[in-house]
Write a structure and sequence with these properties.
It is a single chain. By secondary structure, this protein is an all-alpha fold. The protein has one domain. 73% of the residues lie in helices and 0% in strands. The longest helix has 42 residues.
Length: 168
């Protein structure tokens, strides 16, 4: 008997489950929105953009370092003051002071990292400072600070204009 070799039977194709949205999907969507907004806004003068790209990273690094020093001092002070506050009838406020100081220290570290990465023309540094500006904008809005709101909107406008100069 002459038999021909049969082809192997392929297993049935299983449908792939729908993929969950990832951080990269959300980030690329926000990046797309930022790019659309940048294109719609009028162009800033090139000299202003160049000055901003040279100065803003250093401002972020300097103020981040000052913030780190101040938050470290506040952390030491709140750690020493916390037990006294509990002893004199303010339970929980010592923990709030320590938590606030730690949060300020983390924010200062992110600001320093963002400034250093902006000096290297990395998009991650641009995004770190952009998130900080959004937080400052919201803070000015919630505190009804018109001057602060106008200041942060102008800085954010210039920051958005320099976005194409930063890559991964």
């Amino acid at each position: 008997m002459d038999q021909t070799p049969s082809e192997p039977i392929a297993p049935p194709v299983q449908p792939r489950p729908a993929s969950q949205p990832t951080w990269n999907d959300s980030f690329s969507q926000v990046d797309t929105y930022a790019e659309q907004l940048r294109v719609k806004l009028p162009l800033a003068p090139p000299g202003l953009l160049n000055a901003y790209m040279n100065v803003a990273p250093w401002v972020a690094i300097i103020f981040g370092a000052l913030g780190a020093i101040i938050s470290l001092a506040a952390l030491i002070f709140s750690t020493a003051l916390g037990p006294l506050m509990v002893m004199f009838g303010q339970p929980g406020s010592g923990f709030a002071l320590i938590l606030g100081s730690l949060l300020a220290l983390v924010i200062a570290a992110l600001e320093i990292a963002g400034g250093v990465m902006m000096l290297q023309r990395k998009a991650t540094g641009w995004w770190l400072l952009a998130v900080g500006m959004v937080v400052s904008l919201l803070s000015s809005l919630l505190h009804v600070s018109a001057i602060g709101l106008i200041f942060w909107l102008l800085i954010a406008y210039i920051h958005l204009q320099v976005k194409p100069n930063y890559t991964n």
